[in-house]
Request: fold
Amino acid sequence: MNYGKTIFSQIVEFMPLYEFRKCVKRYKGDYKVKSFSCMDQFLCMAFAQLTYRESLRDIESCLRSMHSKLYHMGFRGQISRNTISHANNHRNWRIYADFAQVLIHQARLLYQDEPFGVELRQTAYALDSTTIDLCLRLFPWAYFRKNKGAVKLHTLLDLHGNIPVFIDITCGKIHDINILDYLIIEAGSFYIMDRGYLDFKRLYTLHQQRAFFITRTKSNFRYRRLYSKAVEKITGLRCDQTITLAGYYSARDCPEKLRFIRSLDKDGKRLAFLTNNFTLDALTITELYRCRWQIELFFRWIKQHLRIKTFFGTSENAVKTQIWIAVSVYIIVAIIKKRLNLKPSLYTILQIFSVTIFEKTSILQALLEADIVEQKSKNHNQLTLFEL
Reply:
């Protein structure tokens, strides 16, 4: 059925426009702007994400070729690469960061009951970062090493639905451990991290806020065993111990008792876990840590399917604006998938959107006509949401 609206217009309808205008007003994004508003900027950048544009000239050429349809797609200002570039460099990136948080809140409500491999009543988060390489000559503010620039995307991922609830974009030189100081900790939730976040002072702060952490230990980890619990070695577990820290500084920073678990993975590799949770069984603790791999898949997915490796501007504001709008597009498509009860993966939906963006048909019809045939992956490391 022809609804008279393009696919792009139907995608825009899932945006909470009232909340977007509040974000724009909060940072005076449209102050003294006569044409090409923040909404025009967002739509141009969202179009670039959905259709895999490579440059500002590419965006300008494609949109101008469809000039007669732009008004009905929500565009009000004249499209040119100069106005897009100026907006990316000067419009406050926090407008789009705040709007992304609004979308994240909506998405979390939709995906809060999604399974992720472990039956758990509490919320479980995976914390990690990914590095996006940049040319230091073009991006001098993003200093990383002597001859290399980079930005880090620090992300806290809700494992229920794989929705990023916290994102911080820093230059590559910032160490991952510092991000723990900026998190708003939820009591009763699990925070799953790799050994790069092993800082006992910060972990003790997290413990005092009544949250649980699961991490791995380093090779020089020193501890004193208090007592052990019996484990079933057929499951791969090797020990489940209650310990205290033996190092002078570590014991001073974290005086509480902790739980130390050893296990073998399928390849026979020895793994050592540290947690402050004494309620869950040891096998569940190890399974929760394995679910941390979902954030690695999230990083790989967005790097492959969103435009966050090639940037349309070189300023810090332009880079952060593009990343936050890319995250917003990801969340909007996730919301569409859930609200319309779509079976195809996000990858498939994005591919269909990219070639039907100007078609006047319903989203459901576009997916139906594509004659989608997806094979369910048997790889347990592959997220259902991200199936390729």
